[in-house]
Write the structure tokens for this entry.
Amino acid sequence: MSSSTSSSSGAAAAGASAARDEWKVLVALAVVFLLAEAGIRLTERRLSVDIAHIRGAPEVAARLDDGTRARDVLVLGNSSARAGIDATLLARQLDAVGRRSTRIHFFYPDGGNIGVWRWAWRRYFAPPVKQPDLVLVCGAKSHFDDIAPKPVISAGCFVSAKDTPAFLSGELHSLESRLEFLLAKASLSFVHRERVQRRVLDMLMPHNREVLGAMAASAALSAPHSEGSARLAALLADLKAAHTRAIVVTLPSVTPYDVPGSRIAVIQESAARWIDLRRVPGITPRDFHDGAHLNPDGAVKLTSALAQALADHD
Amino acid sequence: MQFNSWTFGVFFALLWLTYGRLRLRGQNVLLLAAGNVFYGWWDWRFLPLLWFSIIVDFNVGRALGSAAEPRRRWHLLLVSLTANLGVLFLFKYLKFFAGECCRLIGFFGEHHDVPPWIKTIVLPVGISFYTFQTLSYTIDVYRRRTQPVRSIFDYALYHSFFPQLLAGPIERPGALLPQLLNQRPALDWARFQEGLHHLITGFFRKLVVADNLAALVNHIFSLPPGRITALEALAGAYAFAFQIYCDFAGYSSMAQGIARWLGFELMWNFRLPFFATSPQMFWQRWHISLSTWLRDYLFMPLMTTSPLKGVGKVYAVTLIVQLASGAWHGAAWTFVAWGLLHGLYLCAQVWLARAGWFEEPDARAGWARRIPFMLLTFHLVCAGMILFRSTGIAQAEDFFTALGTRWHGSALASYGFAYLAFFTAPLVIFECWLEQKGDMLALLKVRWQWRALAYIVMALAIWFLPPENTNEFIYFQF
């Protein structure tokens, strides 16, 4: 097989002439990438329910300030909170015991954890946005662990331009992650490329989600784990500075998990409260549709327990 | 710093902008500095090791240049061999040998633990590659095939030329030194075009094929023993064969592209190995820089010095060389077994050919005649890949047992084959076309519109089909 090195045959006149056309190839590549970027920007909300939810955060913030006298509760969480807390039921049960009617607002990006909740809160809900009466920070197992947020999704969805310097210096400690963050700030197609891939694979691969779930579960066993709570402390400090009441809620999981004593101390020192719903009477493994997410029956039980606990705290 | 990192992108952009404005001496100083930064980025503590090898071999080379007496020349070569292979043994094999010795002693009822300091030894990245490259220099000077380099800085650059420092191709002094010491051509459209081709195809192989297949391979090879089915094992073996090929060929291609843009020409390390029609042809197309190194510096000397006679000598030397190739890849019995298996394949091919039972199809033969041979060779290679990827002989045994007994479908198997087809089909089609053309750079000889289309498909796949995790190049661990 010929190696066709440019010093020999590649130097031929025809080859040299063809090489001069290479700028056209580069222009074609650039045009396609610009079109892809424009396409993603135009169709971003249709890419996934999760992105539509995240991009809807300013609308949630606007609803907090719509002049009604209702009691506003903002739930910061992820898919565990989305599956486990029934907003209508929670509002109804809180209405029954409170003096004001209650409105529940959610912000629950997929895969959200303490690494992104703080930055998301600062971007979408911190003053000058009118503050909710209560913020519930809801997570399970490792969601409160001090694990650095992912730079790409953080840049695209959670960190504001104002917070960028603080995020770059405080959260990202390698040049690579900082460069990824900056690129993600510039390009939405870079931010959403994993979602595009997931949609493509969902369409083409049999059992895609099922196998990906199994792969993620085996990868999770070797995932980094940290019992630190610096990010939780930072979020609670931000909430306190905004004079917003905060409650940390630990949600149930099929596999039992511990909450480190140091984390409980952080919550207490931040003048926040802790509602421990790791074990709710009546919730069994049959109330989960997978290892982490409750089914509708489980959600009713968890919501009732949460409403009861909130009433007790009031 | 990996080629497929943004950090390297910034590093190379800065280097390239400066490089073009310098004369030869300045370019070489810049490349030497870049090589040290590039290597030190991984772990600066291993830089002295790199320089130890540079200083030893530069001085051995100079001494060989002025030594005429054969005995003294042989002693000088021994200094280089001992120093380089000694360091390689210390960092790569000592832990394995100590562990095996302790096991052997334990077999006789005595209990010994590997000393803690041995357990903490870390393998310096790229050590096997730069050791072989530097040995090829001292051996070639010893054989008087290369003149010794006069300046240690020039030699250091030969030793630490960053595009191929960590994972090859293992260059020869006869090919690389003249390019380092003489004025290199300026970048023109033809060189830019060739470099771009190497980079895009390299990134496609690594990021789209290898890294995406890595998730499937890691999952299949982490299944509990006794649970894997034949189809899952088959999917795992095929996926790993493509993963390691695309990982390493991708790296080699990127190295070629980067070097091309700097005015260098590196050797081809892979030439469509899965289209080989025999084990022998496979080794002419797979990791060519290592297989030719072993041929020139191990096989040929053994053939000329071995006291054995006839075809028995060919078998014995082939097995020794393939065992050395296996051991070069890593300190584990699985690699030794992999090398032995390939040695047996090669011996079997020689034996069958001598007996008249095997006639390899000519390169010009049609696809219909070659495909059965290609498929057979590919499956022999995949059997070896199971050994190569397994964490131990027991896991490999479990895979082979599954292939012999547990033939039933599963969600993972159907997913695995669909996943494999999705990520490899475009590559296989592209490589079929290259094989048909008989030219690795055939894409540069078509109309620009076709090339643009191919690049757009590859670039969009690189951008929109990212792996969950970007993996290090597999060969960095060797």
